[in-house]
Amino acid sequence: MASKVIHALYTDDDVLMHAVKKVKEAKHHIEEVYCPFPVHGLDKAMGLAPTRIAITAFIYGCIGLAVATVMMNFIMIEDWPQDIGGKPSFSYLENMPAFVPIMFELTVFFAAHLMVITFYMRSKLWPFKEAENPDKRTTDDHFLMEIEIHDNEDELWQLLAESGAVEINILEK
Amino acid sequence: MYTISNRLKIASIVLMVLGAIGIGIGFVSMPGTVAEAKAMVASHDDGHGGGHEVAAEHHEEANDHGVATEAHGESHDASHDEHLLHQLQNRPWAALYVAAFFFFMISLGVLAFYAIQRAAQAGWSPLLFRVMEGITSYLVPGGIIIFIILALSVAHMNHLFVWMDADVVANDKLLQGKSGFLNGPFFLIRAAIFLGGWIFYREYSRKLSLAQDAATDDTNFVKNFRLSAGFLVFYLVTESMMSWDWIMSVDPHWFSTLFGWYIFASMFVSGITVIALVTIYLKSKGHLQDVNNSHIHDLAKFMFGISIFWTYLWFSQFMLIWYSNIPEEVTYFITRIADFKLPFFGMVAMNFLFPLLILMNSDFKRVNWFVVMAGIVILAGHYLDIFNAIMPSTVGDQWYIGIPEIGAVLFFAGLFIFWVFRALSKAPLQPTRNPFIEESKHFHY
């Protein structure tokens, strides 16, 4: 399906922020913004929903804690409760201080790694993935805003030109 | 300018009066001299037997424990009765000491936080400097009261510190070996040096802070920065030694190397919590206009982080001793778990689990009543922390949170509130010429 998009390039993150606010005010849908570095407050200006990755991390941490507890309980208390140096292996609680370092580390391990993997999956990042930047310069010193065109080419061009764009391109996608 | 409201003033005076009555009741109902020791103990036991069946039973059981864990080998009745009498006599003193130290350590924790904010040149906190300076003003009355209690202990008015008793030391090789450090005069000299250093920094830094507002350049600010950095070095050493002297030496047979840090974490988190509570109170009264919920968020983050730091130290100390189970150090925890099970483990729930779950969410940290609720639980938890540090070696299994304990807390709470808010009303609540004040006003997280 052939659709046309407009690419507006900026060289300053302040100008970009103003342009984003202006485009949002004119009720155009911003497809994507490409930046060489994180621009503070850009997500708020674009109206992006807040991330839920911290919530997933909390859940993963709980899973890690459960895995550690169940594992240590089975191995040390249920399966073979032998006397190792006089440690009380009669119940999990009695010997718990010795398990806390493992419980802590597995909680952190699960929370950190599963959260990172979640991040990779949600942002579709993996080795040998084909890079998606529309313009090489956006990795160095240019910012690019992409807006889809719905028969309003001239109006959009006008708006973006006024917003301080250093270059505006229209291309088929 | 803030002026202390009449309601707050009356409330703090009512607290002081109620507390003083409670402390008085504690001292009046304390058993008498050593001469009437046996009779007192016997009547005390009778009273228990007649009135509270269950209490008496617990009493007996606990006494057995006391004998079993007592390393001195006092097994015959006379010395045991005397031991019991000393524990009962210690109770109002220990209640007073725990509460006095608890409120003193809050202002000392705030002082450390304040010095760190200055030395680190934090951009978010200058708006809160006057609040911190108000809280640290309690160092003077609180420190004097602590010093008086310590001096009275050295003067043998009580049995809080076993090593101050010449008869005990005469029969105790371990205490003789430590008497080069643990002796009355040196103990008081050290306390005077600690208190003098802390109070000097507080007063001088406050003076420079106020002078900076009226100045035309930043020399006062720079001086304060250097002073704070120097103070932190002094504080680190003296705080450690203070915790050996004032807390660890109630149990002079026991020692732990991370104890100083552990007490530091407790006072640091209590101090930060009180900064947050006072800030929220002042803001709710319409003062501190420029403080926004990002400042509260930052304080709550500190409460959360330092709570976990406290737990880390608590657990490290507990687990290392539990794991190796060396008799001479493990008695510390055995007596606590045997006689103080609920306060000992309850404080871990209050100081760790509760703040962990409440303050983890970033949005909750901006909600005032969440921070206040977490703050109250944290403060109660750290009172219990000091309670657990002092009580087992002073009153042992005779502990109870009753009139003397609650009275002492109310008295010092009243004094603390009165003194802190009086100090807050002495200077404008917002510094004007701090180089970071604009950044602090626009702080946003």
Structure write-up:
The complex is a heterodimer of chains A (173) and B (445). Chain A is of the alpha+beta class. Chain A folds into 2 domains: 4-36 and 141-172, 2-Layer Sandwich (Alpha-Beta Plaits), CATH 3.30.70; 52-123, no CATH class. In chain A, 47% of the residues lie in helices and 14% in strands. Chain A has a 4-stranded antiparallel sheet with strand order 2-3-1-4, covered by helices on one side. In chain A, helix 3 runs antiparallel to helix 4. The longest helix of chain A is centred in the middle third of the chain and has 27 residues, at 53-79. The N and C termini of chain A lie close together (8 Å). The relative contact order of chain A is 0.27. With 445 residues, chain B is mainly alpha-helical. Chain B has one domain. Chain B has 17 helices and no strands. Chain B has helices at 6-28, 37-51, 53-69, 77-119, 129-136, 139-154, 166-170, 173-178, 184-214, 219-247, 259-284, 293-324, 327-339, 341-358, 368-394, 403-424, 437-441. In chain B, helix 4 (77-119) packs antiparallel against helix 15 and helix 6 runs antiparallel to helix 9 (184-214). The longest helix of chain B has 43 residues, at 77-119.
